[in-house]
Task: inverse folding
């Protein structure tokens, strides 16, 4: 489990995060929603160790985050940032192979090749392996980086000990950016499948309908403060979501068993 306790973060004299407590467990998909400037990416950066200038504590499986080596941490959790930055003329295959770097000393090149090929297939980029990354569209680049993090936490990378005793975690910061409708749902289905396989998934999303369809729990954040955290169906009410985003919404229920949908009121 990844646990955060009493997290406070200030930058430029402004409070960014205000006393947050949060747990991420294996096998669950937690969606974080909030308006622009709520502190969503800041929380993700704290939880993944990218930012350390906070007060409070973050622990990974009861070990302080600061005590993990970069390689060991990379074996446990993968991060898809909001705006992946890569300008070198790598091939798509080479970019996805970056996700395998934490496992280099395992000396299992066949497992690495299989993980990379499978990840590209999962995101719909079979046949793109030799394409140059800078020549791709924004959506294609996003799918390449999704493949990279999927390859990083591929179950074949785990030793028997890790498989038995260690949970993996996947952090997705606005993962549907630049994706078309099909790509968006492919991404979220893969995240849902990862959770079903025992991985703890933390995803920053903009659309409450995506959270309704895929998440087990939802966290609402506003001005750095926790507004609500709990089961998706209990947290995502008309009143709560309308107040959070400052727009009148209604939640249309369905009679055929498909997920309810938020629409403009």
Result:
């Amino acid at each position: 489990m990844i646990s955060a306790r009493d997290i406070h973060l200030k930058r430029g004299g402004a409070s960014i995060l205000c006393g947050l407590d949060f747990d991420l467990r294996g096998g669950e998909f937690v969606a974080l929603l909030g308006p622009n400037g709520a502190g969503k990416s800041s929380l993700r950066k704290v939880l993944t160790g990218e930012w350390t200038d906070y007060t409070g504590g973050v622990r990974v499986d009861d070990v302080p985050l600061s005590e993990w080596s970069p390689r060991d941490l990379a074996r446990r959790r993968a991060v898809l940032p909001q705006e992946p930055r890569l300008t070198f003329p790598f091939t798509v295959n080479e970019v996805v192979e970056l996700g395998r770097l934490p496992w280099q000393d395992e000396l299992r090149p066949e497992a690495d090749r299989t993980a990379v090929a499978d990840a590209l297939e999962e995101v719909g980029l079979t046949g793109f392996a030799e394409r140059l990354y800078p020549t791709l569209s924004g959506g294609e680049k996003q799918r390449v980086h999704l493949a990279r993090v999927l390859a990083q936490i591929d179950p074949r990378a785990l030793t028997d000990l890790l498989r038995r005793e260690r949970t993996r975690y996947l952090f997705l910061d606005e993962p549907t950016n630049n994706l078309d409708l099909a790509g968006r749902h492919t991404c979220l289905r893969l995240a849902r499948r990862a959770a079903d396989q025992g991985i703890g998934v933390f995803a920053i999303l903009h659309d409450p309908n995506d959270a309704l369809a895929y998440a087990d729990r939802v966290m609402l954040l506003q001005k750095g403060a926790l507004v609500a955290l709990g089961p998706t169906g209990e947290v995502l009410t008309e009143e709560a979501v309308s107040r959070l985003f400052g727009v009148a919404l209604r939640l249309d229920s369905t009679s055929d068993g498909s997920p309810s949908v938020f629409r403009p009121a």
User: Anything to note?
Assistant: The radius of gyration is 19 Å. The chain has one domain: 2-264. The mean pLDDT is 92.
